[in-house]
Amino acid sequence: MLTFQQNENAIRRCVDLFNKRTVEWVDTCFAENAEWIELPIPGISRGRQGDRAFLRETAEHILGLYPDRQMSIRNLVAQGEQVVLELDWCGTVAAAVGGLNVGDRIRFRVASFFTLVDGLIVRQTDYCIPIPNEAARH
Q1: Which tens digit of pLDDT belongs to each residue from 125-136?
Q2: Cα separation of the two ends of the chain
Q3: Where are the domains of the chain?
Q4: Strand, coil or helix: 135
Q5: pLDDT tens by residue, 14-58
Q6: Which of 18, 67, 79, 98 has its CA 20 to 30 A from that of 120?
Q7: What is the CB neighbour count within 10 angstroms for residue 66?
């Protein structure tokens, strides 16, 4: 069993890899049997849920829509195999989608709850809240 510090470091590494603007963070940070859950957000009223392959597919799609997307950690708490992360997610729209125009900047505040086993994420649940007035053109 890994310590909470090792699990915290694993999540920080995942954020660092995410910010390199590839999708390799999925294969590197998630166990093969991982489950990802994203609760409903505007434009995705049913939310999303799936395995690691589904998360990778979603990550590829999002990277195409928001190639400059970034996450920044606001708070991180680790205890045992659980890690809770509060972050800001932002990106610039590269292809018009869901009422957004190319060049619009969007931002979400996200709370993510992780369960890790042997340093890999086996479950992630995301609560994403859009930050108002951020979808404005530069």
Answers
A1: 999 999 976 444
A2: 47
A3: 4-130
A4: coil
A5: 999 999 999 999 999 999 999 999 999 876 778 999 999 999 999
A6: 67
A7: 21
Burial of 97 (0-12, 13-18, 19+ CB in 10 A): middle
In the Cβ-directed half-sphere of 109, how many Cα atoms lie within 13 Å?
6
Phi, psi of 134 (to 5 degrees): -95, -15
On whether the CB atoms of residues 95 and 21 are closer than 8 A, the answer is no
Specify whether the CB–CB gap between 107 and 131 falls below 8 A: yes
Indicate yes or no: pTM above 0.85. yes
Is 100 strand, coil or helix? strand
Query: What's the rounded Cα separation, in Å, for the pair 82 and 65?
Result: 31
28 alpha-carbon distance from chain centroid = 14
Among 80, 51, 75, 67, residue whose Cα is nearest residue 18: 67
Identify whether the C-beta of residue 16 lies closer than 8 Å to the C-beta of residue 29: no
> Looking at domain 4-130, which CATH architecture does it have?
Roll (3.10)
